[in-house]
Design goal:
Number of strands: 0
Number of helices: 3
Structural class: mainly alpha
Shape: globular
CATH class: Alpha Beta
CATH superfamily: Thiolase/Chalcone synthase
Number of domains: 1
CATH topology: Peroxisomal Thiolase, Chain A, domain 1
Radius of gyration: 15 Å
Length: 93
C-alpha cells in the first residue's frame, strides 16, 4: 500500500519492508537456507542483524530458527514473536 492508500483507509503502517532478496540452496541442506538469505539481504541493505526490530523465520522444523539464531547471533526474544509456522499448524512440523 502506498501513502495515498494509507490515507484513504485511515490507517498507520505497522511495519516497513526495508529490503528483500532471493537465494537458492541445496535441497539436502535446505533447512539452512534462511541463513544465507538473511546474510545476503543484510549485506545488500547495508544493515546488521541488530538493526532489525523483529525477525520472522519460516520453519517446518524447530531446528531451522535455532540454527539461524546460532549462526547470526540474533536476539531470540525478537524471533517469531507471534509464533512461527509450527505454532500456526504447519503440516510437516
Amino acid at each position: 500500500v502506498n501513502e495515498k492508500g494509507l490515507k484513504a483507509l485511515g490507517v498507520e503502517p505497522i511495519a516497513r519492508v526495508h529490503h528483500m532478496t532471493v537465494v537458492g540452496g541445496d535441497p539436502v541442506i535446505m533447512l539452512e537456507a534462511p541463513i544465507p538469505g538473511t546474510e545476503k539481504a543484510l549485506k545488500k541493505a547495508g544493515m546488521k542483524i541488530e538493526d532489525i526490530d523483529l525477525y520472522e523465520v519460516n520453519e517446518a522444523f524447530a531446528s531451522v530458527p535455532l540454527a539461524w539464531l546460532q549462526k547470526l547471533g540474533a536476539d531470540p526474544a525478537r524471533l517469531n514473536v507471534h509464533g512461527g509456522a509450527i505454532a500456526l499448524g504447519h503440516p510437516l512440523g
